[in-house]
Amino acid sequence: MRTNEENVELANLLFPDVTDTVDDIFSKYPKRNIPDEAMVLRFAPSPTGFMHIGNVYTGLICTRLAKQSNGISILRIEDTDKEREVEKGVSMIVNGLRGFGVVFDEGMVDEEVGVGAYGPYIQSQRLEIYKVFAKQMVSKGLAYPCFLTLDELENIREEQEKSSLRTGCYGKWAKWRDASLSEIKERLEKKEKFVIRLYSTGNIENSFAMKDLVKGGVTLRENDMDAVLIKSDGFPTYHFAHPIDDTLMGITHVIRGDEWFSSVPLHYELFEKLDFKQLPYGHVSPLMKSEEGKKRKLSKRKDPEAAVSYYVERGYPKEGVLEYLLNIANSNFYDWRVQNKERSLDEFRLRIEKFNNAGALFDITKLNDICKEYIATLSAEEVYERVLEWALSFDTDTAKVLEENKDYCIKIFNIEREGSKVRKDMVKYQDAKDLLSIFFNSTFAESEVEDISDRVDKNLQEKIVEEYTKIFDIADNLDMWFGKIKNLAEKLECKPGDVAMVLRVALTHRTKTPDLYQIVQVMGNNIVEERLEAYAKSL
Ligand code: GLU
Question: Given Cys at both, which of 104, 147, 383, 473 links 75, Cβ 3.0 to 4.6 Å?
């Protein structure tokens, strides 16, 4: 056992450059001047280069709850795992969230830039801060340097497994916790690598109660692991950075992913040893997927729809995605929506205690339905603007078509968009491409002609097209249009549906399209005549 004086000497040896005290650090992070009920929340992703739709979900929850309480939301980047980091990872997160309207009051706004008085908001720029706290802990005998090598750790693990014991660095296995100062000095002189570990005083036999904001009351076992606080590269672990950052930044509630729930006992011990006020936790379950009757996590590896890029690249309307995410976050959202059809999403009050504890089920079919409903509420001009915005990033050919034919495209998007029964066939802006392709000769020419000769034989098709060409008049109103189709069917002794089908395929190459009369009106006389003639020839 080292004496108090020896621990102070050890702290100075380990951190000779650290001259600030914990009080010096606290003086740079004054208490926030906010109302009592205001929540200060942070979303703290790691820049791994992959944005999971669950990130948007958690980010949305965090910004929403903060805003509702007149509080503050913070985007903090946790980049302490250098191996998992990718270039431009921060911008990917910032832009990915911004694309869905998830914007924070403080924190990173760009790859390098953070706004707010409680930064830096990127952990790799906070290393000096963590060292101050680590130094203090070592000097008080609450943390110590550990020189166990990877091989030694592996041997410990094997031994523990052989004896059916819990694995990890705890109790007698934590070989360096009570090492003498001279033993430690010897290793330091040899420049051996070390980590700083917590000197745990917890007892796994003891339990304690905590109230999770999402899960409710739970009983947990104390921590007894000498967890790593500072890695050998000088970076903190998540466990160490979390209490320090959240305390300094004035966070009021830690809302985070369920995967951290098992670390709560360790975090409780760290808050205590750091002499910090314990913050309340709310552990949000991950998004789940139902597969063959079983629920599993929505997986980055197995499910393409887990990636934020899936929605961005296809041009999903952000309003639809957000509406869906609120829907699965709080089960009462649906009832609220039914009663408040016209109200903005911002007016819905999210409640932590209503989160689904078992994991919200993510169902892309439902999300698609909500997006369809949403796009159906837009005007043709709005659809045009949104589709163009999407196409400029993801489909430059379509963007060109849209820019060069603005009025025509708006007319196309207006088909079945007015009146009480709006067509709901567009889930995402990418779907516009399919509709547009009917109207432009270049894409139309390339499209495959659906074969309807089983239903209407070719001779009859030919007659229909020939006769119809004689009577077609673009100026006809809807009744006249139907009247002509009916008369022609009588004359040729076939069904009006057959006539319409032949015209539909002749004009669009498809058997299923929006309203044919409206299509014809938008196409105009010349295109209709050209296509009828070309179809007749092809028969
Ligand atoms: N960086 C951690 C993660 O991405 C954050 C956890 C937290 O929110 O505290 O899982």
Answer: 104
